Amino acid sequence: MAQNYVLNGEQVIFSFTTVNNKQMVLAKDTANRYLVYRFGTKDKIDFTFPDKIGNPDEAKQSRNKFKYSFYIRGGEKQNEGLDLNYVYFSNGKFKYVIYQTYSANESESRCGIKIIDLATKKTIDIKGKIESIRRDLKDLRDSSLLEIGDELFD
Predict the structure, then answer these.
(1) Does the first or last residue of the chain, that is N or C, have fewer Cβ atoms within 10 Å of its Cβ?
(2) How far is C-alpha 36 from the geometric centre of its chain's CA atoms?
């Protein structure tokens, strides 16, 4: 039985399938009260953050747990153009970074999730399939949905 990664009253902000066929969905409720991250297989959601958004106070606080950061360097290949986009949050001793990037120098787009151990700084990079992307993290640049942060992860 397939899991529903987007509940009634929610909209996808960004989603993709990983190279190992897991699903990542960043969603919001249609009233812009909360954000939620879900990750797992088609049959089972393995991780949800935040895990509680049931009451209005928890829902409102969930938006404050996520940040968005980006960096743009224009100029195509001759200027090593970049378009880097990240949504990130911390959970316990780990930082989760959802990324969507483009490098003109490499003529390559990438997406995925980096999980950074805050104590050891060891990073696991779960790569996504570019062709599976739904929506675009760049849409968050002009949005008041997330606080703009300054961390870059590449």
Answers:
(1) N
(2) 10
